[in-house]
Write a structure and sequence with these properties.
The protein is α/β, with parallel strands linked by helices and 242 residues long. 22% of the residues lie in helices and 28% in strands. It is globular and about 45 Å long.
Length: 242
């Protein structure tokens, strides 16, 4: 599984012959890539805020996955033609990937001429195997936490049952977790690899990522923290097996 961070909360996940793009927003200082440079099979949206759905309309050939409310909104407002609405706790098969939608604690109203509800904010767990009660040591699994605060579901549900190998957590504070709470999340999730996201895009969320690294170390977590450069790709297979 290849994981590419395009700044903010925008991730490209390549798994087998399937590519997924999460939260397309390219107006951020960490990327030199534009929507026309990418051709994902699926676009996953965690919630309806502009810094997470801004460029969804640029992927007319992709299949968009989101809550039913948000899927309907982007179909109406962005001209998206292929959508799948799903909800918390569900798992869908998307090409070579199995995608589970999990809870995120955040807001999710869309400011238009009126207040439009985009349903429940979410995160996604992407795996090459269908999650079951039987642990699969050979699977590769990535958890995109979306915009969220620290929540015990990370410890009580996502870690023991979905078993992420790699996690991307928001660290910018103000609108989401900051470095301290994000470090606790990494510890609770018991992952091998952790990435910071959702920081340095605009002034309220500017941080020193070294604070996040120190906080993760302070929890006693065994996770390797990788602070990626914009548009950098991380090969999870290499990390897990070599």
């Amino acid at each position: 599984m290849e994981l590419t961070w395009h700044g903010h909360s925008t991730w490209r996940v390549a798994l087998g012959d399937t590519t997924l793009l999460i939260d397309p927003f390219f107006d951020n200082p960490h990327t030199d890539v534009g929507p026309s440079d990418l051709d994902p099979d699926y676009v996953l949206l965690t919630h309806g805020h502009a810094d997470h759905i801004a460029h969804v309309g640029e992927f007319a050939d992709a299949h968009v996955v989101a809550t039913p409310e948000l899927a309907g909104y982007v179909a109406d407002e962005y001209g998206v033609t292929e959508t799948t609405g799903m909800n918390l706790g569900g798992t869908v098969e998307l090409g070579d990937a199995f995608v589970s939608m999990v809870r995120a604690d955040h807001t999710n109203g869309i400011e238009t001429d009126y207040q439009y509800s985009a349903g429940t904010p979410a995160g996604y767990v992407v795996s090459d195997t269908n999650p079951t009660q039987v642990a699969d040591e050979e699977s590769e699994t990535f958890y995109h936490a979306g915009d969220t605060s620290l929540q015990t579901e990370m410890r009580d549900v996502i870690a023991p049952f979905l078993e992420p190998d790699a996690v991307a957590v928001p660290v910018g504070d103000h609108f989401t977790m900051g470095p301290r709470q994000a470090a606790v999340a990494v510890d609770w999730l018991d992952a091998d690899v952790a990435f910071p996201m959702h920081y340095d895009t605009f002034p309220p969320i500017e941080i020193d990522t070294r604070d996040f690294v120190r906080e993760v170390d302070a929890t006693g977590s065994d996770a390797d923290v990788h602070v990626l450069d914009g548009d950098e790709t991380f090969d999870l297979s290499d990390e897990l097996y070599y």
